[in-house]
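For concreteness, we quote verbatim a single protein encoded this way:
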Amino acid sequence: MKKTKIFYWIFTILFSLSILAGAFLYFFQHNYAVQNFERLGFPSYLVYPLGTSKVLGIISILQKKSPILKNWAYAGFTLNLALAFLAHFMANDGESFGPIFVLVLMFLSYFFNFKLEKDGEESL
């Protein structure tokens, strides 16, 4: 089980850092984020709520108080990353690999979290 826990934390930390990097870009390089959103056809007023949602989602995944909230955060990130992939793919801007890579990290984190829960262990 120790190996499962190590894999869980490796993939969860890599996933979390990837998501937080995007969220911080939304807050600290707002003009750049707005330009990218508009280029992809999304309204610019979504930048701050999406950044806030990403930070709250990562907090939900890293905490161990509510498994239901954690599962909803994983579901929200799945939707967000799938739509990000489709937006970049449709824009044909060559940036569709990023969301897919983060989605794979997320699925690995979720898989090892599920395995730990199934075995009755906590992630910490």
About this structure: Residues 2-28 form the longest helix (27 residues). Residues 9 and 91 are 34 Å apart (CA to CA).
